[in-house]
Amino acid sequence: MLSGYLYMEKKKRRILHKKQILIAPFILVFCILGAVVFFISRKITIEMSESAIGNLSESLDLISNSIDAILKREAQFQKMIAKEIANAAKPEDFVLSYDRNDTMVKLSLILSGETVGISNTGEAFAEEELDFSAGKTVDGLPLSGSYINSMGTWAYTIRCPVIREGKEIASLYIEYIYDSVDDMFPGSFYNRDAKLYLMDAASERLVLKPKGIGERDAGHMSLDDFYYANKILETDIQENVAENIKNGKDVMFYHDIQNEASLIYMWSVNEGAVYLIGYVPVQAIQREGNAVNQNILIVVFVMLTAFTACCCLYLFFERQHDKIRKDQEQERELHNRQLQEALQTAQIANNSKTMFLSNMSHDIRTPMNAILGFTTLLEKDADNPERVREYTRKITASGQHLLGLINDVLDISKIESGKAALTIGEFSLDDMVSSIDAIIRPAAKAKNQSFEIAVTGIRHTRLLGDETRLGQILLNLLSNAVKYTQEGGSIQLRISGLRQHSSQYEHFRIEVEDNGYGMTPEYLKTIFEAFTRAENSTTNKVQGTGLGMAITKNIVELMGGTIEVFSKEGEGSRFVVELELRIPETKAEEPSGKAEGDARTPAAQKAEAECLRGRHFLVAEDNEINAEILSELLLIEGATCEIMENGRLAATRFEQAPPGSFDAILMDVQMPVMNGYEASRTIRAMEREDAGTIPIIAMTANAFAEDVKDAMDAGMNAHVAKPIDMELLKRTINQYLK
Amino acid sequence: MKGILKKTAAILTAGALVLATGACGQSGTDGENLIRNEEEDRVEITLFAPMERSKPDVENAARTAFDKTIIMAEEQLNVVVEYNTYTAVDYQEKSYDDVALDRIRSDMDDLYLLNPDVLQKMGEEGRLADLSDLACVKNLRDVVKTANTVNGKLVGIPQEVVVYGLFVNKDMFDCYSLALPDTPEEFLECCKVFKENGIETPVGANRWWLETFVFAQAYADLYNGGNTEAEIEALNSGTRKYSDYMRKGFTYLKEMIDLGYIDAETAYTYEAIEGEGPDFLAQKTPIVMAYWGAANAETAYGNPDFNLQIIGFPSERGQMPVVSVTGISVLESSERQQEAREVLEVILSDEALQVYAETNQVISPSQNLEVDCIEALKPLNDLVNGGTYVLASNAGMKVEQWGNTCLIVRKLLEGASVEECMAEFDKLQEESLP
Questions:
Q1: Is the peptide bond before A367 cis (omega within 30 degrees of 0)?
Q2: Which of A152, A211, A221 comes nearest B102 by C-beta?
Q3: Which of A5, A429, B132, B345 could make a disulfide contact with A461, Cβ separation 3.0–4.6 Å?
Q4: Which of A239, A281, A245 is closest to A263 using CA atoms?
C-alpha cells in the first residue's frame, strides 16, 4: 500500500519535472524573442527618431531658406527701385506714383539731410516711426523690427540708400507684410500636428501663423506667451533659448506639450532676424518608425500566437493521450483487481469448502463412529441391561449431535439460497428468555460457568416475530459463548430497550458477553462467513459445523437488524444484536418473568406422560423402518396404531372407519401416490363430523419453518420433525387431545 | 474535436488569404503617378478675431463654444474659416480695436468679431454689410437689433448678449457682516469697511471695463424710466447733453479713486482680467467687474475657492446690469461676402446659438432660447430677464458710447477732472450734430 503510494508520488513528480523541463524552453524562447524584438524595436526607434529629426531639420531649413530667399529678392528688388529713383528727375513723384501691392504695401523716401519724407500714400514719413536698432540686415540693407502697420497686420521695412553719382541722395523705405510669405509655407506640416509661427527675434512677437499649419489653444502673441501656454517654464531652457536666439542659432529640444512628448524648434531665418518657432509631437515625426515597430510587433505577436497555439495543441493532444492511457490503465488495473479478488474469493470459498468438507467428514464421522461403535457394543452386551441403557443413551446423544449438524447445514444452505422465510407470530420475550435459560443454564453449569441474564428497559414483552428464529439467534450466541469459554468463566445475556423509532415497534439490543478465549482480529473479519471456525475441528476439541455465526447473521439481517462483534484474544467476546420487532396491537401486556415450562404443575406433567395410553392412531408412513419404530414407540407408551403406506390409503382408511375410531392422525409428508398435504386436505374436505376436528400431526423430515407453514396451510394441527422426539410428540398430542 | 480543427483551419486560411490579397493590393505599378492631387474646392473665409482657433478639447469655454459653431458652418457649407488674430501684449501696443479698424479699412478679412465702438464706427463709415436680410435676424431680441443698427443697417450680430456685473467675494462680505450693496451709497460704505479692515484696494479694475460703473449710474433712468426713445432723440438732436447723464457716474468714479477704493494707476495699465484677476482670485480684492461669461470660464473666474456672487452695478434704481452688444460683421467690400453671410446664417442660427449658449451658459441673442445659468449668476440673470439693465452700446446714439466712454474714463484715470471729462463728451456731441 505504502509502496504503491510512493510509486504514485514518484510518478507525479516525474510528470511534473517533465512538464517543467518542457515549459522552461518555452519561457526561454519567449524571453530571447522578446529581448531580440525589444532590441530591434529600440534600434529602429532610435534610428527613425534621428532620421525624423533630420527630416524635420531639413524641412525647417527649407522653409527658412525660402523666407531668406524672399527677403533677399525683396532687398534686391528694392535696390533696383532705388536705382530707378536715383535716375528719376523727381524722386518724390516716383514715390507718389507707386500703388501698393500684396508684398510692398508702403513706399517712402526721405531725402538726405531731412528727417521727414513722403510716402506713396501722400502722408509724411519719419524714420523714427521704425526701429532699426537691432542692426539686422537683408542682403546688406538695414531691416527694421516688426510692427503692426496701418493695415492692422505685421510688417517690416527695409531701408535702402538712393545713390546718384556715388552720392547718397535719399533713403528708400519699403514696407513689406509678413502675410506675403504665407503662401510658401507647407499646406500641411506633419499632417497638421506640427505648429509653426514666425517670430520677430527682436521683439519676440509672433508675427505670422501660416495658414494650414495646425491649431493651438493659446500663446499666439509672443515668445513669453508661447512658453506660458505650453508650460515651458524652466528658466534654464528659456535662458538657453534666449542665448541662442541672440546669436542667431537654431534651437531644438524635447519637452512635454499638453502631456505629450514633443520636439520644440526655433529656427533662425535671415541670420536670426526672424525665427520659425513651434513644436511637433514626437509621435507625429516618428510615424514611420512607429508603423515599422507596430508591424514588427504584429508579426511577432502573430508568430508567438501561432507558436503558443501549436504548444497548446500539442499539450492538449498530449493530455488527451495521457487521459486515454490513464483510463485504460485504470480499467486494466480494475479488471485485474476484480479478477484477483474473484480468484481470491474462489480460493477462499474453495478452501472454506474443502475445510468444511474436511470438518464435516470429521464431524459426521465422529458421532457416526460413536453410534456404530456403541451398536457393536450393544450387540455384544445385549444381556447387560445396565450397559445397554448406557450405550443407548450415548447412541442417542451422538444421533442428536448428528441431527444438529445436518440441521445447520441445511439451514445455511436454505438461507444462502434465499429460500428462507420468517414465520411471524406473537410471542412473549419473557417466555423465550426463560426457555433459553432452561437450555443454556444446565450447559453452563456443567462447565462450572456463571450465567447471568438481565432484561432492562423493555416496554413491551409481547412482540410479533419469528420466535423460533429469534430463539435460534440467542441459542447460537449463547451456546457459542458456553462452548468457547473456559471452565469457571462467566457468560452474560443482556437485553435492553432502546429509543423507539416508532411507537409500533419495540427497539431492543441483545448483548451476549463472555470472558472466554476471544478471537484474533483476523478471525473477527471472517466470523460471519459460512464454513469458518475459530479452530479447525480436527485439532480442537470444541466441535461444531462452523455455520452457526453465518446462520445467526443471516437471520438477524432477515429480521432487518444488525449484528456486531467485539473481541480480544484471551479476554472474551461481546456480540451485540439490535432488532426492531412489531408490537401487537390488541393484546394486553402480560406480566413478564413467567416461563411456560415453569407453569406446568407436576400433575399436568404426569397427565402429559400418560396421555398416549389407550389411544389409537392412524399413521401414514411409507418407510417401513420408520413405521415400525413409531409403532414400537407408541406401543411402549401404551398406544396402538394403523399404518397406511401413502396418503390416499390413509384418507380412504379414515373415510371408511366409523367416527371416533382414531384419536389422531400422524401424517408423513413425502409419500408416494398422495403426499401428506393432499391427504390432509382430502380428510378435512370429507363430509363427516370429525373430518374437521380430528387432530392431524405432521411427522416429517421436512423440518423447516416453511414446511411447518405448508403443513398448517394444508389443514394440519401441528408439526413434529423427524427424527421423532417422543417427549415432544407426547406434548404435542396431549395439546390436541384435551 | 475534428469540427473545431476544421473551423480553425478554415479561419486561418481565410485570414492568410485576406492578408496576402491586402499586401498585393498596396504596391504601385510602374509609371503610375503616386501623388494624389487633391482638388481644393473649399472656399476660404478669413475671420479676424482676438484669439486663435482652439482644439476641440481645450479648456477655454468661450473659444470652444465659438469654434463649435464655426465647425458647424464649415461642415455645412464646405468652407474653411481661417482665423487672423491679434491681441495686444500690453497697453502700449495697438489695441485689438485699433487693429480691427485698420484691417477693416484695408479690406484684410471677410468676417470680424467687433466690439460695440468699432462696430458703430465702421458702420457709420459704411464698411460693414447690412445683415438685416439674414434669416436668423427674425429670432433676435430687440435689444440686439437696437444696439447694432447704424443708419438703418444691422451691421453686426453677436452670439451672446454680453452682460457686465460686479463679481463679489461673498465670503469677504460675510466676514465683515456686509450686505451686498444696491445703491452707490451702500457700495461706498462697503468699500469703506473693507478699506478700514486693511484691504488696500477694495475694487479691482482694468483699463477697459471701469466704464460699466459709469454707464450703470448714467443711464439707469434713461433705459428704465419709460422714455428711452425720446431721451435718445433729445441727445441726438442736442437738446440734452450726454455730460448731464455722465457726470453722476464720473463724479462717483472720481470719488472712489480719491478715496483709494480704486487704484487708478494700475487700472490704467491693467488688461482685462489678466491685471486685476489674480488679486481677486487670491481674495485680496473683494470686488471686480467683468462680463457674464467670465463666471463660467476656468481661465477667468470660473470655479473660485470662495463663494462667488455676480450682482448688478450700484445705481439709484438699485442693482443695474450693464449690457454691451458686440457683433460679428461682414466686410462690405469682401469678395466672398456671400459666403461670409452664409457662414453667419449657420453660426447665428438657433441651432448654433443653442450650442453656444449651452456651452458657455450665457444669455442668447435669440429670443427663442433660454439657458440655465450657474447659481452665482442668478441675481444678474433675474434682473436682465426682468428688463432691468442699461445698454453700454447703442448704435442709435449719434455719439458712440462704449469706445468713447472707455477712452474718457482712461483720462479720468490719468488725472483729468470730472469737468474735463464732461467737456470731452460735449465736444463729441457737438461733432455728432449735423
A1: no
A2: A152
A3: A429
A4: A281
Residues with Cβ within 8 Å of B304's Cβ and at least 6 positions away in sequence, in order, are: B169, B281
Rg (CA), chain B: 27
CB contact under 8 A, B101 and A148: no
Q: At what angle do helices B242-258 and B184-196 cross, to 10 degrees?
A: 20
Nearest residue, CB atoms, A148 vs list B59, B84, B94: B94
List the beta bridge partners of residue B289. B166
Check A220 against B53: CB less than 8 A apart.
no
Distance from the first to the final alpha carbon of chain A: 71
Nearest to A152 among B87, B93, B100 (CB): B100
pTM of the complete model beyond 0.95:
no
Q: Which of A234, A289, A291 is nearest to A264 (CA)?
A: A234
3-state secondary structure A599-666: HCCHHHHHHHHCCCCCCEEEEECCCHHHHHHHHHHHHHCCCEEEEECCHHHHHHHHHHCCCCCCCEEE
Nearest to B54 among A148, A217, A225 (CB): A217
- By CB atoms closer than 10 A (0-12, 13-18, 19+), residue A327 is exposed
- Other CB atoms closer than 10 Å to residue A562's CB: what's the count? 13
Neighbours of A732 (CB within 10 A): 20
Tell me whether B432 touches chain A (CB under 8 Å): no
Q: Which three cell numbers stand for residue B346?
A: 449657420
Cβ–Cβ below 8 Å for B52 and A151: no
Reported ipTM: the value is: 0.76
Strand ranges, E, within A43-186: 104-111, 116-119, 124-126, 137-138, 141-142, 147-148, 154-164, 167-177
CB pair distance less than 8 Å for B51 and A220: yes
* B43 in A contact zone (CB under 8 Å): no
- Helices A2-87 and A287-380: crossing angle in degrees, nearest 10, is 170
**Nearest-angstrom CA–CA distance, A502 and A582:** 9
The distance of A151 to chain B (nearest Cα, Å) reads: 5
Q: Single out the residue of B326, B328, B327, B325 nearest to residue B111, CA to CA.
A: B328
Residue pair B50/B85 in contact by the 8 Å Cβ criterion = yes
Going by C-beta distance under 8 Å and a sequence separation of 6 or more, which residues neighbour residue A187? A211, A212
Return the residue matching grid coordinates 503692426: A148
Residue of B nearest to A212 (CA): B82
N residues, chain A: 738
Q: What is the pLDDT along chain B (434 residues), one digit of tens a residue?
A: 556 667 767 887 887 777 666 665 555 566 777 666 655 678 889 999 887 766 555 555 555 788 889 999 999 998 988 888 887 777 778 888 899 999 999 999 999 999 888 998 999 999 999 999 999 999 998 888 888 998 889 999 999 888 999 999 999 999 999 999 999 999 999 999 999 999 999 999 998 899 999 999 999 999 998 888 899 999 999 999 999 999 999 999 999 999 999 999 999 988 888 889 999 999 999 999 998 888 887 778 888 999 999 999 999 999 999 998 889 999 999 999 999 999 999 999 999 999 998 887 788 899 888 877 888 888 888 888 888 999 998 888 888 898 899 999 999 999 999 999 999 999 999 988 87
**CA–CA min distance A143, chain B (Å):** 21
Residues contacting B78, CB < 8 A, separation 6+: B41, B42, B43
Instruction: Please indicate whether, in this complex, the C-beta atoms of A217 and B98 are within 8 angstroms of each other.
Output: no
Show residues of chain A in contact with B52, CB under 8 Å. 209, 215-218, 220
Taking the CA of residue B60 and the nearest CA in chain A, the distance in Å comes to 8
Tell me which residues of chain A have a C-beta less than 8 Å from any C-beta of chain B.
148-153, 205, 209, 211, 215-218, 220-222, 225
User: Is B130:B340 a contact under the CB 8 Å cutoff?
Assistant: no
A149 and B58 within 8 Å at the Cβ level: the answer is no
